């Protein structure tokens, strides 16, 4: 359903609030995500859709705490792969164990169900179990289905359930006659709840058959992710003699962020100021531990019955990916974990052990593992959690995922609005470019003009403009990347503190960019310029990090490597049909440019620097393979695709 009030609110309120924000210079409003293309890589394939249901019904017990996958489609061993639910550790708040399945208004491909930006209401995501064999069981077997649910998400509270705007989460079970019967419903009431547990007794004969299934169905805003419901720790089993009180389990697990900080998103960044930074800037930090998070950790959940604390061992290790022995321990403690409260923080300083100050780009994996002496195999996976931090050639305050979107005021007169991040350097450097995370929504899917800028520091705020570069961000973006990188004509020299960001022409367009709600930036480090040219510090409501990342080049004045250095690299096979391999010294990342210099593919951050490049299907022709070295210089190699 669509209402005139909700349509007008959606179109007018963001602009009105943004103009009000310009006067105060304090808080930028944000919007729910109406398109999240990053989810598209998790959408079920044709083969997975064909496997609509398993060939053999599952046996009891049925259990899923959504510990795996880390993010993506619910595992098809348990779930029909067509409902649109997303497993992640970044949307639910303080789940029982790390990871939860979230149902909202975005389909598996990241697009909204309505395909519009106006508020419409109806059925959104669902989560359907594979068939489960309950044949031969009776009421005396005490079969029960339990689960934890949460209304709302890190995005915000749910909309209120009304006759014209239905917002609810409903549970159905399939009877022996093939009928989906509603057994539980929770309606939205403009509140965001903690996780609450629910037990459904399955004693009726019509439920106890060979092809039993259950299904969660969410109803809400079909145009964005504002109406989010999450479910966690689902257990269907026999012998549950405690009935409706069967809500405790022999399980101690990692959960989400640290209470009092970010309560979603898992382990925070091991870095204190950033989520990623250039390796040479990391190496130049004085003292050596300055860049680390002094309280790295997560919330632990104790789901056991009783009142006595349970002793556990906690070990935190760090290693360099993709495969290496641990560099050492950043945490090693033994402590009793109380039952009340259920969730407690465990933290330690990330500056232990010492990280090698080598010049090569690297990804560090910080892991926390619990030794709880549990014996059930299904509870062991949630005893481990990790966070990767990339030391490469760019700065980031965000973690790479967008839960909300924001925008600049599309002024019609005066100066163009601008956002700018402050960056404090450990040594002089040069800015090679800026990566932006554009979000193309139904309101404006056209390619967009943008100008990236670097400003000098002037008494703690943006001052003299050092460089600008106008560019067009295309839609669709180049393959294998949601960030779009724009490079300056020449690297921009900077020292001390500088400001980097973007502005947009005054074209009256609402152009959205990603906002990461699970990360923050230092207070006073984001600035916005109004159409009068005045700069004010700003932040977001709800809090989050604008997804833009300055790319540095280790103070190298020339952007290209020498001919002798470039000759050390080769690529094969060449010509190629798809996957190619780079031979030669190490490099930070790779990209493919077409004949007119446009980037058509970028190496994903998770595989940056790997020598095997799985290229997408590109038109046959001549391309340039651009390799960026650890010091920021680039090497070009001609590549023919057939």
Question: How do the strands and helices of this protein lay out in sequence?
Answer:
Elements: H1 4-24, E1 27-29, E2 31-32, H2 46-50, E3 62-64, E4 86-88, E5 100-103, E6 121-128, E7 144-151, E8 168-174, E9 180-187, E10 196-201, E11 214-221, E12 229-237, E13 252-254, E14 276-278, H3 279-283, E15 296-302, E16 310-320, E17 328-337, E18 343-348, E19 362-371, E20 384-392, E21 404-407, E22 418-424, E23 429-436, E24 438-439, E25 448-457, E26 462-473, E27 484-494, E28 497-503, E29 512-516, E30 526-529, E31 535-537, E32 539-541, E33 545-546, E34 548-552, H4 563-566, E35 570-572, E36 580-583, E37 589-593, E38 599-602, E39 612-613, E40 621-628, E41 634-641
Parallel strand pairs: 1-32, 14-20
Antiparallel strand pairs: 2-21, 3-12, 4-5, 5-12, 6-11, 7-10, 7-12, 8-9, 8-11, 13-15, 15-18, 16-17, 16-19, 19-20, 21-29, 22-28, 22-30, 23-27, 23-34, 24-29, 25-26, 25-28, 29-33, 30-31, 35-36, 36-39, 37-38, 37-40, 40-41
Question: How does this model look, in words?
Answer:
- This is T9SS type A sorting domain-containing protein.
- Keywords: Signal.
- With 642 residues, the chain is mainly β.
- 5% of the residues lie in helices and 38% in strands.
- Strands 3, 4, 5, 7, 10 and 12 form a six-stranded antiparallel β-sheet that branches.
- The protein starts with a helix and ends with a strand.
- The N terminus is likely disordered.
CATH architecture type of the largest domain: Sandwich
Largest beta-sheet characterization: 6 strands, antiparallel
Structural class given helices, strands, pairing?
A: mainly beta
Count every helix, treating DSSP H or I runs of 4 or more residues as helices. Answer: 4
- The termini sit apart by 49 Å
Count structural domains. 4
Strand content: 35-45%
Helical residue percent band: under 10%
Tell me the radius of gyration.
26 Å
Please tally the β strands and state the result: 41
CATH superfamily of the largest domain: Galactose-binding domain-like
Question: Class of the largest domain, according to the CATH hierarchy?
Answer: Mainly Beta
CATH topology of the largest domain: Jelly Rolls
Mean pLDDT: 91
| Coarse morphology | globular
Stretches where pLDDT is under 50 for at least 5 consecutive residues are 1-24
